[in-house]
């Protein structure tokens, strides 16, 4: 254990000795360098002081003044050139800025004119569409009126056709036609019966008899129906109205009829359940009507068309031509130059 401690101490001592051996020469050389540098600085300062305090010839002073003047002139020229270059750059920048502002103003005015033109076109299109819609509505109204007139005429025609006088005339014509046909059948039957008897044709005679019977039956049926259809005229019965006996001596006023008072409904009696229920029902109905009116008002306000001058302010502005644009640009440039 003691040997290990001794060995460690020896290693530390050796390391310290090596460090001192390396550090001391370096430190000494650094100290010498610093001392030499300080001496050189002091020597140069002393020489400059001696040179400044010693007498200089006139030529050297003139030369120094000339060089100084040239240097100052050169510096002044450089400063003037730099100032001029800066002024030129600033002027070019200002010209570019004014040009950009003019271009921007022209573009804005052009865009405003284009927007106004587009708005006018949109208004014209809207007016054309409105005129077309009105024309379509008029055509639809005219067609509806024509259809209604057609329906009215058709109804009048049907009513005229179904009028009692027309129906009676039509039935009379039908009865006359049937009566004429039945009479013709009777005549044909009599003729067939006559020819059958004359020419001893039994079949023809039988057909004539049948035809005559059928015609006579039809005529009897029609005469019976016609007699039944005739209106029965009732002689008016004249009844003499009884005379009213008026008493002169004992004339009393006729008794007046007084209606009986009906009981009032319970809804009109204050404080009853029926009245309270009726009041609640009336309140609910009033609230419902108010809600419906408010909803209808909001819907009408939402569906109301927006005015053109509110939706697009550019449409209300007057159109600007090239002369107005040029005058505005000149005024802007003049104000820029004055400021």
UniProtKB/TrEMBL annotation:
Please note every region of biased composition (Low complexity). 311-320
Q: Which organism is it from?
A: Microbacterium mitrae
Positions of the region Disordered? 294-320
List residues traversing the bilayer. 6-24, 180-197, 203-219
Coiled-coil stretches noted in the UniProt entry, renumbered to this chain: 69-150
Keyword entries, A-Z:
Coiled coil, Membrane, Transmembrane, Transmembrane helix
Protein name stated in the entry: Large exoprotein
- Which lineage do the record's taxonomy fields give for this organism? Bacteria, Bacillati, Actinomycetota, Actinomycetes, Micrococcales
């Amino acid at each position: 254990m003691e040997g290990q401690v001794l060995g460690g101490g020896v290693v530390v001592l050796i390391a310290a000795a090596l460090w001192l051996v390396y550090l001391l020469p370096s430190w000494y050389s650094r100290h010498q360098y610093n001392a030499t540098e300080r001496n050189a600085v002091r020597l140069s300062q002393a020489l400059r002081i001696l040179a400044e305090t010693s007498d200089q010839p006139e030529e050297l002073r003139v030369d120094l003044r000339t060089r100084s003047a040239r240097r100052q002139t050169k510096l002044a020229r450089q400063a003037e050139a730099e100032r001029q270059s800066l002024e030129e750059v600033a002027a070019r920048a200002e010209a570019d800025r004014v040009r950009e502002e003019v271009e921007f103003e022209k573009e804005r005015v052009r865009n405003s004119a284009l927007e106004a033109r587009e708005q006018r076109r949109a208004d014209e299109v809207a007016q054309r569409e409105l005129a077309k819609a009105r024309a379509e509505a008029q055509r639809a109204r005219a067609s509806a009126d024509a259809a209604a007139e057609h329906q009215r005429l058709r109804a009048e025609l049907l009513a005229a056709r179904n009028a009692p006088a027309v129906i009676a005339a039509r039935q009379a014509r039908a009865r006359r036609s049937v009566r004429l046909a039945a009479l013709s059948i009777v005549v044909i039957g009599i003729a067939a019966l006559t020819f059958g008897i004359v020419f001893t044709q039994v079949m023809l005679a039988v057909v004539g008899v049948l035809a005559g019977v059928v015609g006579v039956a039809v005529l009897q049926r029609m005469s019976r129906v016609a007699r039944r259809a005739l209106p029965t005229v009732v002689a008016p019965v004249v009844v003499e109205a009884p005379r009213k006996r008026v008493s002169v001596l004992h004339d009393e006023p006729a008794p007046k009829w007084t209606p009986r008072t009906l009981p009032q409904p319970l809804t009109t009696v204050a404080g009853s359940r029926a009245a309270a229920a009726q009041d609640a029902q009336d309140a609910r109905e009033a609230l419902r009507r108010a809600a419906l009116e408010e909803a209808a008002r909001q819907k009408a306000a939402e569906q109301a068309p927006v005015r053109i001058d509110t939706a697009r302010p550019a449409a209300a502005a007057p159109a600007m031509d090239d002369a107005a644009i040029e005058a505005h640009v000149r005024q802007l440039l003049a104000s820029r130059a004055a400021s």
